[in-house]
Amino acid sequence: MKGNIFGIFFTILSGVLVVLIVLAYGRSDKLPPEFRFTALNLTYGSETTDKDLLAGINAYDSKDGDLTSRIVVEKVVLNRDQETAVVYYAVADFSGNVTKQSRVFPADIKDIDNNGDAVDVMEDGLFPDMLMGETLESDRDNSADASSNGNSLED
Question: What is the pTM of this model?
Answer without folding.
Answer: 0.60
